[in-house]
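Q: Got one fold?
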Amino acid sequence: MRVRKGKIVIFSLLVIAILATAALTGPQVAKSITLGLDLQGGFEVLYQAKAEKGQKITRKVLNDTAQALSRRIDVLGVTEPQISVEGEDRIRVQLAGVKNQDKAREVLGKPAKLTFRSPDGKKVLMDGADLKQGGAKQDYDPNNQPAVTVQFKNAEKFRELTRKYVGQQMPIYLDDQELSAPVIQEPIPNGEAIISGNFTVEEAKELAELLNAGSLPVDLKEIHSFAVDSALGKESLKMSMEAGVYGIIIIFIFMIGFYRMPGLVAVLTLISYGYLVLLAFSLLNVTLTLPGIAAFILGVGMAVDANIIMYERIKEEMRYGKSIPSALRSGSRRSFLTIFDANITTIIAAAVLFYFGTSSVRGFAVSLITGIVVSFLTAVALSRIMMTLLVRSNLLRRPGWFGVKESEIGEL
């Protein structure tokens, strides 16, 4: 039988492409992945929503509160925050990389309900819901002191109120604290007011940002919170990666030693698996956590399992006395449904974890589902393509290349 060099060339180019892509772009892809709270340090807090009188805590109220918290987190400059609604009245917030935890707690938990009241301070005339979107900004009052300028949606309503209270005070409150009590000198026609209160520039900016973010639909009670030091997070990442590398090296040695050439193909597909999973994490903006790393390593195990199932089927067909090309075709076909069923059942389990789980469990589920989909493509499709190229090249003529002894052929 003549060796078909074209198939060997294609196989070699495919190997070079896999190794070169992983080596040259892999580090950049890995660095682009957002690390979670447990890997880079940060702050986590669990809130319980408290209903006000006559108010009912519904899923919509919780989701609206979560959105308001998300807008407030933008004030802190935190990227990729994790906010999840849990149970019937709880919201969990995870802020990876946040440095000033006291400020984070203050910004998140402050109700920030702005009200304009009657001169006696008892009747609410207008509130934060009447402000234009993004209508608050840091400015300066007539005495050149830091202040906050606010614009109302309904300028006519504000004009009528200021007309009604000309010569009287219109106190401005943030929650239950009076910020200022300006005296209305004349009706204000442009729907714009200035809030002053002995602010510093930074305090005025923070108040403006809070008002733009909106007040919280419900009061939040902090149940518990904790901080993860960045050094601890880095140590966790280092230990996890070392454990993963050692485990993968052992798998590589086992696959090549036991399955010979198919084992080498499995190693190449596993390298492809690792690269493609990290690329998927980066493109999907997945926040990688310790459970996510565990799911990634578990995906490696499932990818190896898929390779083992296919290679064992091929070896069985060879022991029946079939030729190598025939054994490859029938063994691949027989193994497909087994691999498919195993992957589908795991995806279903991961989907259930995602639906019912908390944030860390959901992170595990997302990573696991991503890893399963990629492992199916690499361990089944890519592995079969590479094995077919090798077999059709007529380079692998002896069963020993597949870990099958000559004496074993015909035993089954």
User: Anything to note?
Assistant: The chain has three domains: 5-36+229-408, 42-111+216-228, 112-200. The mean pLDDT is 81. The radius of gyration is 31 Å.
